[in-house]
Amino acid sequence: NSVIHGFIPAGRAPFYRPSLRAGSVVRVSRFEVARCTNMYKITDHPFVIRFIPQTTIAEVIENAPVINVEKFMLRSFDPLQALANTNLELP
């Protein structure tokens, strides 16, 4: 019942992109967990997961949990857009 921020380094993104589809449920293995810094915090969760070269992703086909979409609030990024390229710390 919570959302945790995941970070994929730009150089690794093409490797994981085919496995990440909207609406799919995936199992992520072999990743790092770290405290989320306030500078990059986009969720209320105190931790962030970081994808490393050993990280694997596999789509869960059978016995996948049902995720209640209403639990995910759509955020307005307008306030962040105003801060883009200003070299200010994001709230």
From TrEMBL:
Domain Replication protein A 70 kDa DNA-binding subunit B/D first OB fold: 5-59
Listed transmembrane segments: none
Domain of life: Eukaryota
Pfam families in the record: DUF223
Protein name: Replication protein A 70 kDa DNA-binding subunit B/D first OB fold domain-containing protein
Listed InterPro entries: NA-bd_OB-fold, RFA1B/D_OB_1st
